[in-house]
Specification:
about 60% helix, mainly alpha, two-stranded antiparallel ribbon
């Protein structure tokens, strides 16, 4: 790709990311309204003609890595593994 093509692609990417952010904000607003309505009615589930909407508390157990590392660093290091990823950024 030429520099001009790259510039155009980045501009298009930024435009699309802006649209995504706006749409995500609208979706979050709708979710907040639905949650508030459910909470006001004391419901965890609403069933309509076409949808089932659930907003339930989920309890899960997770390992506290910081606490394990502080209390038992040798065991933490024994079971700790590295992971690799790549990050794409445009500045």
């Amino acid at each position: 790709m030429t520099e001009r093509m790259i510039e155009n692609r980045v501009k298009k990417l930024q435009e699309l990311e802006g649209q995504i952010a706006e749409l995500q904000e609208q979706a979050d607003t709708i979710k907040t309204e639905l949650k508030a309505d459910m909470e006001g009615k004391g419901l965890e589930e609403i069933q309509t003609k076409h949808f089932i909407i659930r907003w339930k508390e989920i309890v899960s157990s997770r390992l506290d890595g910081k606490a394990l590392k502080a209390a038992l660093p040798e065991i933490y290091n024994q079971y700790c593994k590295d992971s690799k990823s790549r990050r794409f950024t445009v500045a």
